[in-house]
């Protein structure tokens, strides 16, 4: 029993409006008209006859005549009426279909007609099962027995009531004459076959989720209601408009393209599993099948979206891109999807990972996006959220669509796939075979297992990614340094507020250019500075003093080496703890830094260690200097394995630096 | 049906025993009436629908409502009595659960009959669905109203506009029952999940004589011949009576002869 709290409960309890029921009722009322309806005959039982039985073939003939449809459709329509519960079969009561032969059916009494307003209560079902128990000496079917036990557990508090009511109903039914009793029992049984179907069958009354608002209730015209109407109308006005010729043309084109691929409108090869209970179609179209079907491959040619959304198509495309050495685009796109659809807790790490792998200057799988987008993205990455990479993702998507997709469709990879695609034969099942199939229905692989397989696949893919498939295009090109100015200097632990835009006409560098130059300049500055430091060491670290000296040093260096401005600024921003929230151009340095640098420096000068991190190795190393720098950077920098520092990390103190 | 009104004082144990018995009797009769109402409601809209049926429905409904009012007041007053011993309270709570469930069934049935009255107008007999029923529900109504048989004289005086009158009264009655249910929830706080029923899971068999009514259908499917036992029952009873009479007669004759 529901604890009726109709006024206080704001949950979803209303069944959606089922418009088909009213229409079916009209048809049924026409059907049973004595003059123009289906002709009925009495059913002869052993000791009595019961009137108003109709044969299947009569039903189908009447429907075909009334609606001017062919026999197959009339049969389907009749079966629908049976599935909803308006007509029930007298023999073979568990299968709610209309058979086109002399099998008998009867109309259901209006009390047992399906309604939208009143849901079918479990209490009633429990009473019905208890009644069956009384009658048939406890002989319920297996699923009914299970339901009975379940209801006994959940409605235990009113089990007394249920048993008593069952007995009373049984006694009340006994008052009637025999044939009427038989009819009533048949009606009740048919009702419960519709609303509590045996396992393996689908209920015709499945309607999905309950609604929050009663569809039969009149909507009260409060000010809120009118407010909603106004908002809706305003939004409708603001919608962008398209000329009907254009939109209709698009619709027509879509329909024409997808017509032969629609399982309702055209044949589903080999056969529609919902109709024939044969799952070959699904096994042939599994996401990671070896040889796709011809129709599936044809769909890939319709649009780029189709290609990407099909797992098998994506794999093919990935293979093609691998051959073309532009696999990072697709990898980036996929990582963005992963970010968008992943769990909220992993958003931050994933965004970082993606930045380090694809977007940072000198990243291993660097992708080519324009400056504006990069700016927006990097700005957004300070506070990463799910959609932070949307702009970049769209850009890459368009790039792939306009460029790679066209080439893919002409490529040998695709042509090979098309050649190997299979075209399965259509099944032709006989009636007996169909029934056999229905009996052999088995549940498919559990979605949990499928998900695990998917994850394993992804892990395997990620592990086998070729980072070595980099070319010199992954080196940041000079003119692109334009975006690395104001917001960040990613490879340095600079404050975000560097006012100058660096312009590095010559950038021969490995990954952390500024880092290296910083370390170099620091090291170079050491001899000059040690003295100064010693002097000031006794004093409290006067940051201004120190920075002034460094400024002087850098100017000297500029004149001496003809340093690029980037080097200069790099030196001005040493890698050290930066005070949070400082807005000065020059970072205060910790006093520790310079003192620690000398011992290392000495070691570096005289030892040549082949200890380059893998990322550095690939880049054209143009001077031993840089080599040393990178080595030093890797040891001196100590920012983990990669020197790439994400922009948002610059605000947090560096761990492991010296 | 005589209605026992026990206005007993609170501290009286014997009184509470009586209240339990009364309550049980009332609730049982309500359940009987509700079951009968459902049987009658199943005929509405079918080819046996008629003014008589509607009248029977009305009478059954009225009886159910009277019973419901009584039980409501009875149980409410006793359950609000704080000094009730624990056992009695448990029993009363059980009765309460049965009563509220019966009321809900009644409410739904009444709503359904009301709706069906909309679709199936008695004036237009063509639309009444041919369900295969042949008899009306008069026997069932008689059982509900606990009368040996319904007076046939009543039917002739039924006015033709009964339906329209009925609809307005039905609406009122439905809302009344609805209010009663809501009031019950407000006034008495019975924790349903704490109520423990008496009965066992398996329902004991009432009588096996009727097991063949659906078996009739199955035999028809399998095309076996089977004798129905049910129709033999009255014959059995008569035979038994005859036997008893015979035995009694022989005994009396022998006594007379020997004395």
Automatic annotation (TrEMBL), chain A:
Listed Polar residues bias regions: 580-595
Residue numbers spanned by region Disordered: 518-549, 580-599
GO CC, alphabetical: cytoplasm; neuron projection; plasma membrane
InterPro entries reported for this sequence: DEP_dom, G-protein_gamma-like_dom, GGL_sf, RGS, RGS6/7/9/11, RGS6/7/9/11_DHEX_sf, RGS9_RGS, RGS_DHEX
GO-annotated biological processes: G protein-coupled receptor signaling pathway; intracellular signal transduction; negative regulation of signal transduction; regulation of G protein-coupled receptor signaling pathway; visual perception
Domain DEP: 34-109
Membrane topology field: Peripheral membrane protein
Domain of life of the native organism: Eukaryota
Keywords: Membrane, Sensory transduction, Signal transduction inhibitor, Vision
Domain RGS: 303-418
GO molecular function: GTPase activator activity
Pfam families: DEP, G-gamma, RGS, RGS_DHEX
Broad class of the protein's primary localization: membrane
Subcellular location(s) per record: Membrane
Protein name: Regulator of G-protein signaling 9
Native source organism of the sequence: Xyrichtys novacula (Pearly razorfish)
UniProtKB/TrEMBL annotation, chain B:
Superkingdom of source: Eukaryota
Keyword vocabulary terms for this entry: Membrane, Signal transduction inhibitor, Transmembrane, Transmembrane helix
Name of the featured protein: Regulator of G-protein signaling 9-binding protein
InterPro entries associated with the record: RGS7BP/RGS9BP
GO terms under biological process: negative regulation of signal transduction
Keyword Membrane (UniProt): yes
Alphabetical list of PANTHER family matching this protein: R-SEVEN BINDING PROTEIN (R7BP) HOMOLOG
Transmembrane segments: 235-258
Family: Belongs to the RGS7BP/RGS9BP family.
